[in-house]
Design goal:
This protein is an alpha/beta fold. Helices cover 33% and strands 16% of the residues. It has a single domain, classed as 3-Layer(aba) Sandwich (Rossmann fold). The longest helix is centred in the N-terminal third of the chain and has 19 residues. The mean pLDDT is 96. Bound molecules: 2-amino-2-deoxy-6-O-phosphono-alpha-D-glucopyranose.
Length: 263
């Protein structure tokens, strides 16, 4: 794992976007992005959009696959992940909406929608760069604690803590859906590169468990320790419970020239 500790949230977005742009450059216009909802990656997406609009990153034929979607919330609902991805990814980055995919949480046959989603990812050639946030309970996507480490896209029941965390986006907690469709941990692990971003003190414990804890389904993000190309970009607050902070900072400060990010 590569762990990069930044002074603030804005810098997290800049560094994560620069890392993604570095990975995307040799892939070219047809890069396949894995995109996440939540507040964490918003700055990264804003910066990616800036790079794309400035002609520094070619997303002209890019595809995107979202991690997850609530079950039972219509596509146009402001809190549907369809809508959030449209606002934070598709429009600012100028992606062709036909190439932006979100699991269909409103399908009559949800298991079939999950299978179709896996097939669509495969048909696109797999995800090149998967962006992730992390839940305060260590979930990635909506893979709640005890998720199979090899799971595929499926229906999940949201943990009470996740519903409490996400209640801020709804009028009351009763409106937060109880179920979702989410890419599995196995699906996420198939991405060729993974970039996880986290900011703020509320993520400090989850980050410590994901990066330095044992690999366990109790902190689903810890499966990323098995990924060959996982980059974790955090601010000082989210890094607060890591034990090897000095090592991560020294490593980043002393990167060889060819690995340095131009930010
Ligand atoms: C949500 C999403 C995750 C996201 C996480 C953290 O429930 N399903 O993909 O990473 O919770 O959200 P935030 O970044 O707003 O803290």
């Amino acid at each position: 794992m590569e762990v990069i500790i930044c002074p603030n949230a804005k810098r997290v977005g800049e560094v994560a976007a620069a890392k993604a742009a570095r990975i995307a450059a040799p892939i070219g216009a047809k890069v396949v992005l894995g995109v996440a909802t939540g507040s964490s990656p918003v700055q990264t997406f804003t910066e990616l959009a800036r790079l794309a609009n400035a002609g520094e990153l070619d997303l002209s034929e890019a595809s995107a696959f979202a991690l997850d979607e609530y079950v039972g919330i219509a596509k146009g609902h402001p809190e549907s992940y369809h809508e959030i991805i449209r606002k934070t990814v598709t429009e600012p980055m100028g992606l062709d909406p036909a190439r932006v995919h979100v699991p269909n949480g409103f399908a009559d046959d949800l298991p079939a929608a999950c299978v179709a989603y896996e097939e669509a990812i495969k048909a696109a050639g797999g995800v090149d760069i998967q962006f992730l946030g992390v839940g305060s309970n260590g979930h990635i996507g909506f893979n709640e604690p005890t998720s199979s480490l090899s799971s595929r896209t499926r229906i999940k029941t949201l943990a009470a803590r996740t519903r409490e965390d996400n209640a801020r986006f709804f009028d009351s907690i009763d409106q937060v859906p109880r179920h979702c469709l989410t890419q599995g941990l196995g699906t996420i692990m198939d991405a060729r590169h993974v970039i996880l971003v986290a900011t703020g003190p509320g993520k400090a414990h989850a980050i410590a468990q994901v990066v330095e804890g044992p690999i366990t389904a109790m902190y689903p993000g810890s499966v990323l320790q098995l990924h060959q190309h996982a980059t974790i970009v955090v601010d000082e607050e989210a890094a607060a419970e890591l034990s090897l902070v000095d090592y991560y900072k020294q490593t980043y400060a002393n990167l060889p020239d060819w690995q340095r990010l131009d930010v």
